[in-house]
Design brief:
Length: 80
């Protein structure tokens, strides 16, 4: 899925570059600030990203892990 690839690259970028603001991350990622804000808030709910407030209320994204593994069971309730 394209979105998953973009989001994985976003996590790698945050981890490697350690941006000091959402604006700085948007510039480095080539994505709009509003798009990143929505994506990061969703990632934060899942514990993939930590969002803290810095100087003058700037939102600072951090990736608290070096590696993430997702285990998903495909045997369960079926839809449809």
């Amino acid at each position: 899925m394209p979105g998953n690839t973009h989001n994985r690259h976003l996590l790698e970028l945050i981890s490697r570059e350690r941006p000091r603001s959402l604006t700085e991350l948007a510039e480095k990622a080539g994505r709009s600030k509003s798009n990143l804000s929505r994506t990061l808030k969703t990632m934060s709910r899942y514990g993939l990203v930590e969002l803290t407030r810095g100087e003058r209320g700037k939102l600072i994204p951090r990736v608290p892990y070096d590696q993430v593994r997702l285990d998903v069971s495909l045997t369960g309730t079926r839809m449809g």
